[in-house]
């Protein structure tokens, strides 16, 4: 659907062919979809419903892809809301550099296509852009021109953005919501905004007076922020040092790296090593953003399946379930909910 919207100059078929072949390459490694009887179910027929709010296409896969694939495979309703199409991302595929915001443009639509392929890989069928595709633009990093644009997510009318997410929450009624911490994990304005909008929308969705035309109030039982334990960052840094790979040149000590959370603060570890192939296929789908010879793939090779298939969270609202994992961590986002 999105592919047909991709704007191509008349007569410029080669640019489009390049885009298509990159997507086809990513799609070619996917396993054929097995029968999934729950796909046609209504949202509320799923006993477990998980909503994730991310800033750009690819964030969902890098941070939470194995978790999404695991719960989708178990028959939970997994809903992904992405706040922007990531128009300001760097482009790592030379043949597609013309899609950059400063040149022909079109990166956002292409990344929407990449995201669709990634969702096929993770078997996630409910994916939405906040407010509809293209409603808010990638804000770029702080103090860049993209960050000044009135259409960027950083400058969104806050109430409008919150209302848009309230509509999704009341539509799918998730017991569990996942987003970033107050620093957006690493300080990107769209990640910070995704955090603010999500926290406000969880409150407003439960308030009978909030967004009155958006359906029945719904109280989310558990809210999590995705996180990386410092011990995992430490392991990553060691793997980086040992590898000597160019992809790892920028790595510093775990304390210098953004996004690390002490192991004591972590509440939950989802061990989804069985879904690592799906996560790696989804990473390959985001070809303009994640180079197959770059950081994340190298890290997955160095750290191995166990480390890379585990994803971590901090429970910030709701009751913590039984901690049957290492360090007393929960091993299920729905723990304690029955
Ligand atoms: Zn992002």
Structure description:
This protein has helices at residues 13-28, 59-73, 107-122, 158-172, 189-206, 230-243, 276-285, 295-308; strands at residues 49-54, 77-82, 126-129, 176-179, 222-229, 260-261, 268-271, 310-317. It has 338 residues and is of the alpha/beta class. Strands 1, 2, 3, 4, 5, 6, 7 and 8 form an 8-stranded mixed β-sheet that branches. Helix 1 runs parallel beside helix 3 (107-122), helix 1 runs antiparallel to helix 7 (276-285) and helix 6 (230-243) packs across helix 8. Mean pLDDT is 88; it is low at 1-11. The site of zinc ion has 5 residues, from loops.
- Main sheet characteristics: 8 strands, mixed
Distinct ligand kinds: zinc ion
Give the proportion of residues in helices. 25-40%
Quaternary: single chain
- Cα end-to-end separation: 38 Å
Secondary-structure-derived class: alpha/beta
The total of helices stands at 8
């Amino acid at each position: 659907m999105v592919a047909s919207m991709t704007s191509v100059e008349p007569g410029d078929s080669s640019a489009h062919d390049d885009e298509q072949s990159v997507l086809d390459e990513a799609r070619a490694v996917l396993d054929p979809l097995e029968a999934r009887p729950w796909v046609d179910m209504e949202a509320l027929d799923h006993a477990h419903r998980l909503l994730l709010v991310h800033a750009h296409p690819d964030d969902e896969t890098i941070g939470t892809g194995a978790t999404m694939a695991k719960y989708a495979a178990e028959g939970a309703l997994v809903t992904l809301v992405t706040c922007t199409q990531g128009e300001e991302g760097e482009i790592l595929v030379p043949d597609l550099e013309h899609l950059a915001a400063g040149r022909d443009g079109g990166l956002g639509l292409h990344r929407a296509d990449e995201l669709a392929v990634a969702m096929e890989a993770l078997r996630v069928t409910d994916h939405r852009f906040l407010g509809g595709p293209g409603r808010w633009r990638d804000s770029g990093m702080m103090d860049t021109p993209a960050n000044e644009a009135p259409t960027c997510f950083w400058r969104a009318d806050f109430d409008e953005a919150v209302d848009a997410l309230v509509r999704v929450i009341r539509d799918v009624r998730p017991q569990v919501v996942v987003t970033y911490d107050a620093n957006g994990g690493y300080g990107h304005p769209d990640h910070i905004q995704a955090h603010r909008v999500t926290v406000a929308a969880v409150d407003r969705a439960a308030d009978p007076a909030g967004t009155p035309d958006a359906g029945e109030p719904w109280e989310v039982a558990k809210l999590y922020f995705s996180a990386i334990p410092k011990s995992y960052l430490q392991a990553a840094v060691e793997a980086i040092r040992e590898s000597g790979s160019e992809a790892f040149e920028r790595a510093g000590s775990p304390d210098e790296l953004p996004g690390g959370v002490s192991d004591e603060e972590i509440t939950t570890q989802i061990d989804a090593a069985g879904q690592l192939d799906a996560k790696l296929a989804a990473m390959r789908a985001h070809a303009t953003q994640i180079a197959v010879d770059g950081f994340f793939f190298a890290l997955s090779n160095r750290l191995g399946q166990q480390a890379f298939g585990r994803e971590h969270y901090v429970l910030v609202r709701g009751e913590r379930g039984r901690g049957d994992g290492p360090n007393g961590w929960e091993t299920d986002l729905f723990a304690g909910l029955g």
